[in-house]
């Protein structure tokens, strides 16, 4: 979570936050944030007489989460290759069981030793062959409650199934994996509400299926 103050007049502020249960999450505040206040749902400086920096982004809260529970994964993929003579039929399926939407989903399947696009028999979404990367790019603009699962079938020359991995996935969302939000911002000098806006988002930095 980062804070950007637009003017010097609004630099003396504290933010009221709402956090869900978030089991398994570990949180860490910026060294200058008052930890006691954070424990009461307020993000403010240890010294309220000091202003936040103006015009630059300041990270005020970080969180970390690790789990082996596959039910928490936003998007799961299944790959079923089946050899038939000199060809290999590959059936792929995606599934998203989360309650939020995933946007701009791109699933990149490596296709080594291919000099041309594969034969695609069926696809939910769109596809294209990236010859530079040697990968079939399966794209879905939006995954929501109307298409929580989908599939694709394509045909390539017979190959070792391991050659179809690792599969790289990218997506974004307007929701965060962590249940947290700003509920209000107030002046530490007057206690009056301060007008604010917030933008939440999630994107992949590295998402691989091996």
UniProtKB/TrEMBL annotation:
Record function comment: The coatomer is a cytosolic protein complex that binds to dilysine motifs and reversibly associates with Golgi non-clathrin-coated vesicles, which further mediate biosynthetic protein transport from the ER, via the Golgi up to the trans Golgi network. Coatomer complex is required for budding from Golgi membranes, and is essential for the retrograde Golgi-to-ER transport of dilysine-tagged proteins.
Record key words, sorted: Cytoplasm, Cytoplasmic vesicle, ER-Golgi transport, Golgi apparatus, Membrane, Protein transport, Transport
Domain MHD residue range list: 1-210
GO CC aspect terms: COPI vesicle coat; Golgi membrane
Bilayer topology term: Peripheral membrane protein
Entry keyword ATP-binding: no
Location of this chain's protein in the cell: Cytoplasm; Cytoplasmic vesicle, COPI-coated vesicle membrane; Golgi apparatus membrane
Main location: cytoplasm
InterPro entries: AP2_Mu_C_sf (IPR036168), Coatomer_dsu (IPR027059), MHD (IPR028565)
Pfam families: Adap_comp_sub
Domain of life: Eukaryota
Protein's recorded name: Coatomer subunit delta
Protein family membership: Belongs to the adaptor complexes medium subunit family. Delta-COP subfamily.
Protein's GO biological process: endoplasmic reticulum to Golgi vesicle-mediated transport; Golgi localization; protein transport; retrograde vesicle-mediated transport, Golgi to endoplasmic reticulum
Presence of the UniProt keyword Protein biosynthesis in the record: no
Subunit note: Oligomeric complex that consists of at least the alpha, beta, beta', gamma, delta, epsilon and zeta subunits.
């Amino acid at each position: 979570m980062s804070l950007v103050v637009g003017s010097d007049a609004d630099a003396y502020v504290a933010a009221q936050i709402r956090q869900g249960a978030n089991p398994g999450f570990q949180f860490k505040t910026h060294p200058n944030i008052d930890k006691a206040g954070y424990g009461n749902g307020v993000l403010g400086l240890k010294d309220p007489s000091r202003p936040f920096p103006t015009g630059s982004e300041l990270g005020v809260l970080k969180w970390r989460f690790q789990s082996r529970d596959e039910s928490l994964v936003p998007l799961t993929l299944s790959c079923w290759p089946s050899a038939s003579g000199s060809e290999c039929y590959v059936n792929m399926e995606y599934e998203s069981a989360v309650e939020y939407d995933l946007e701009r989903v791109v699933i990149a399947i490596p296709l080594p030793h291919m000099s041309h696009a594969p034969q695609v028999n069926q696809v939910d979404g769109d596809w294209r062959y990236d010859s530079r990367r040697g990968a079939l790019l399966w794209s879905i603009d939006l995954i929501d409650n109307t298409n929580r699962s989908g599939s694709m079938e394509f045909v390539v020359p017979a190959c070792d199934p391991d050659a179809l991995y690792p599969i790289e996935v990218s997506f974004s969302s307007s929701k965060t994996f962590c249940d947290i939000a700003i509920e209000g911002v107030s002046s530490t000098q007057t206690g009056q509400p301060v007008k604010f806006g917030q933008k939440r988002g999630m994107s992949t930095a590295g998402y691989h299926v091996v």
